[in-house]
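Usage

Read records sequentially. Each one opens with the input sequence:
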Amino acid sequence: MSLQDRPPKGGYGNIPYQRNIPKRGPPGYALFAGGAAIFVLGMYQINRGRAQRSRIEQEKINNRLALKPFLEAESDRKYIVDTAKELEAEAIIMRDNKAWKVGERVFNSSRFVPQWKPWNIAQ
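and closes with the structure output:
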């Protein structure tokens, strides 16, 4: 046997085969605590936004309630003016018919039903 086939005296040295991976990132409990904190802050912001939207909606409702009498009065005034114009036009159109009474109800009802008119933006 030759010297080439034999190990050196005292044997071969140890071969480093272990993985040396450094620890990376925070531990699990820190990630959990951070996620919980973000969740709590997000829910706080959501509830604060809901309260603010609720206050704004309540303000809109109060403003509409305050303006309602004025808008109804304006609508009533416009209705009276339009009705007077329609009666004048009816008197002119039906002047040849002696049996026609201007302003008389066509239907047999004593209930007040204002005439429906679509909104006209041009007026």
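Summary fields computed downstream for this record:
- Residues 91 and 101 are 9 Å apart (CA to CA).
- The mean pLDDT is 87.
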